[in-house]
Description:
Elements: E1 5-13, H1 16-21, H2 26-44, E2 47-57, H3 61-64, H4 66-78
Parallel strand pairs: 1-2
Amino acid sequence: MPDTPLIVLVGLGFGSGQELLLPPEAPKRLNGGRRALFTAVTEAADHGELRLLGDAAHSTIHVDRPDAVVRDLLDRLRR
């Protein structure tokens, strides 16, 4: 990975539709996989940082938590 700051936002929440369609154990397993994958990505970067958002879904982070997206963009620009 290039020597550049990296902030990875990971949404750990699930939408109501997903909760209806997935078996009860699936969210925990999926989040474990997400954490492992994105931890590896951030550890591969010299300046990587993982930020977990329990109240945002993966595909709707920008809608669920626009404040976190803006904060992290500003943090990235400051580095």
